[in-house]
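R.M. (postdoc): so does anyone remember the format we settled on? I'll just put the structure tokens first.
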């Protein structure tokens, strides 16, 4: 479990779900008391702005591609008002960097192709076709057509 506490709330990630909670005066003043829980598959992107010496940073979760790019200078203000964002200070940033890395990895895993059980390689297919041709079950022309199909999907 990765936890990070910022100025406008807290966020936890257990590998499957992200939970955003609002505790403390500033968090409740901007968003009210409550909790929001999202499955990692719902998150389409993670926007990130690092904190500076005098400027807060934020992490913002995009849900279903619904994103708007704020004007320069207004991004942190807009993030502070977004229910899917947490604003953090320079001191709090390392926790949020760990969280961001874990979220990026989990989102990428959601989009990675799943290997098929019993998948046959191109080399195996070509070997089988060569064997069929040697046995006289397919012609050289049929072999060449199938080879072209396998090598140029």
């Amino acid at each position: 479990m990765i936890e990070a506490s910022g100025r406008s709330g807290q966020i936890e990630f257990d590998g499957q779900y992200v939970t955003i909670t609002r505790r403390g005066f500033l968090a409740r003043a901007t968003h009210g008391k409550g909790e929001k829980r999202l499955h990692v598959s719902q998150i389409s992107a993670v926007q990130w702005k690092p904190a500076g010496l005098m400027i807060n940073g934020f992490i913002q979760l995009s849900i279903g591609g619904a994103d708007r790019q704020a004007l320069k200078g207004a991004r942190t203000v807009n993030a502070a008002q977004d229910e899917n964002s947490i604003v953090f200070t320079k001191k709090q940033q390392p926790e949020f960097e760990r969280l961001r890395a874990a979220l990026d990895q989990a989102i990428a895993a959601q989009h990675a192709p799943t290997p098929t059980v019993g998948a046959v390689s191109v080399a195996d297919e070509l070997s089988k076709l060569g064997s069929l041709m040697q046995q006289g079950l397919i012609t050289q022309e049929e072999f060449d057509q199938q080879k072209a199909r396998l090598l140029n999907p």
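R.M.: ...and that's the designed sequence above, right after the tokens. Also worth knowing: The longest strand covers residues 43-49. The chain has two domains: 2-111, 122-151.
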